[in-house]
Design a protein that fits this description.
The complex is a heterodimer. By secondary structure, chain A is of the alpha+beta class. Chain A is about 50% helix and about 15% strand. Chain A folds into 3 domains: about 120 residues, Butyryl-Coa Dehydrogenase, subunit A, domain 1 (Orthogonal Bundle), CATH 1.10.540; about 120 residues, Beta Barrel (Butyryl-CoA Dehydrogenase, subunit A, domain 2), CATH 2.40.110.10; about 150 residues, Butyryl-CoA Dehydrogenase, subunit A, domain 3 (Up-down Bundle). Chain A is built from 12 helices and 11 strands. Chain A is globular. Helices cover about 50% and strands about 20% of the residues of chain B. Chain B is built from 6 helices and 5 strands, in the order ααββββααβαα. A 5-stranded mixed sheet of chain B has the order 3-2-1-4-5. The longest helix of chain B has 18 residues. Chain B is globular and about 35 Å long. Classes of the chains: A alpha+beta, B alpha+beta. Chains A and B meet through helix 8 and strand 11 of A and helix 4, strand 5 and helix 5 of B. Strand 11 of chain A pairs antiparallel with strand 5 of chain B, so a sheet runs across the interface. The complex binds flavin-adenine dinucleotide. The site of flavin-adenine dinucleotide has 20 residues of chain A, from strand 1 and helix 12. The site of flavin-adenine dinucleotide (FAD) has 20 residues of chain A, from strand 1 and helix 12.
Amino acid sequence: MDYFDLNTNLTDEDIALRDAARQFAEKEMRPVARQLDLLSADAAVAEDSPLWPFLKKAYSLGYHKILLPEYYGGLGSSALQTSLIFEELAWGSFGLALLTTVVCFPFYLICITNEEHLIEQFVVPFCECTDGSIRGCWGITEPGHGSDHVNMGEAFFSSPKLKGDVRAKLDGDEYVINGQKSAWVSGGTIATHTMLHVQLDPSKGFAGNGICILPLDLPGVSRGKPLEKIGQRDLNQGEIFFDDVRIPKEWMFVDPDFYVPMIDMILNAANLSMANWSVGLSRAAFDEAFTYAQERIQGLSPIIDHFTTKQRLFTMFTRVEAARAYVRAAMELNLNISPPHVEYSIAAKTLGTDWAFENANEAIQLLGGNGLTREYLPEKLFRDARAAMIEDGNNEMLRQHGGHVLKENYPRGPLDF
Amino acid sequence: MPVFTDRNVAIELFGDLWSKMVDETEFGKKVREENLSVQFICSDPDVTMYVDGDGPLFDDETQGKNPTVVMKMSSDTAHLYWLKKLNVPKALALRQIKAKGPVGKILQLMPLLRPGQALYPEYCRKYGIPTE
Ligand SMILES: Cc1cc2nc3c(=O)[nH]c(=O)nc-3n(C[C@H](O)[C@H](O)[C@H](O)COP(=O)(O)OP(=O)(O)OC[C@H]3O[C@@H](n4cnc5c(N)ncnc54)[C@H](O)[C@@H]3O)c2cc1C
């Protein structure tokens, strides 16, 4: 369903990008997402899965490189355009929107290194890829450490007692990597490269971590089984194991010296993306409820004619509009300054995903019994939204970190440029 | 002690360097093609430079300009950047560089500045600025 945009200054280009994404979401993403949702986790990534033609199509249209600069062949879209596209894609499917973006994460981060050889070796081929054959993922969560990785403000973060599950040791000109990332690595079962968080200096706890790019076809890399889970079943996940994997030391592009502030920069991009996708999911839930309320007759008239239904739909509408306005404002700020004011991105993610869940929940309630069935979309939206409150940081842990950032920085002064 | 002890030397060196970059390297062609402009606000010594496809402007001349990207840093950090001795993500993360402007454009600008990085040591020698 179309919507009136509160921003009445969209350019023709903005509108064209949004409309193309909407068409892709409706014609390609929705049907594939539905199919993948019904498959087992194994079948969803098997050779004959509809995932592969979908990825090929998404790459051929450039949706895998929305965040990457034009100079290297990325789309180079503005903050607003990125918001517009992300919302539409997630309206189609939260899980597939995430997959088409997380594939760029290692390459996005390499772009800011300004290291020519890494860019030539990794970023340029990714941007040139039109068949979905180069796919990144973000390997941070470990079996023993989930929220621990985003609790940078807490004292335990730099305690030597905090032992990472993936360690890297320098051996001459190479790092040797051992350990395991958890089953939560999105796209982990099919990725060709990972942006890998490793412990380099255990005496500093996780403040002794670093980040490297690691092609997943290196000797010593193996994977676990695709994970079965309640929501975002169209987004595969799985463990990655490292057994004496060797990489050149230049591939370790973030070292402990600036690991902590770097996490905020990564969290910023990831949380803003999550926030935009949440708006798309919220809107999808509203659309479903609104349409159903016009069709379903109870009390001799469409339920939309009943007073309480009007109230309920209006609350859903308000969540979509308020979240969109706030998320875009946070995006506009934090994709235009470096380093970002990360608390605004965290607020966008936590608020956006909470409201997406509330809208999906209310959509089910508005559809009554039908809302619980697979015949109707809200059931999937509900499961997808539930996962989003844990994904990319449990919301309460993100809020804890946001509170820490406030404690350190509030009130921020004006931008001094 | 800062590397540039005399701000006029900094202005002369960078005036020379930017002009060469704009007139004779890929940088000039690209910023003209893509209508890009960049402002460096350096401190200690304080020098503000603005560059677009027409060449560099300094200090008061930069007033009223609306650059695509603004980079704020100490003159010493800028010196390390031009010498390719600065880890840019680290400097951004540690707030040694603050940047304003679309992240995509900032990322785009980095490779465009490389011809300047290649030329910089030669200009340092010319103006007596240490490179070690
Ligand atoms: C759909 C989905 C996609 C994901 N994608 C990726 C991915 O691409 N890459 C990746 O690496 N990871 C990914 N994750 C993992 C995700 O980041 C983690 O699940 C998340 O950080 C939480 O970690 P955990 O599951 O280990 O929970 P835990 O950290 O074990 O938390 C369990 C509970 O304890 C609470 N808790 C934890 N620590 C504290 C504390 N210090 N104080 C008080 N309470 C605490 C939490 O709030 C939570 O309620 C994904 C997760 C999901 C659900």
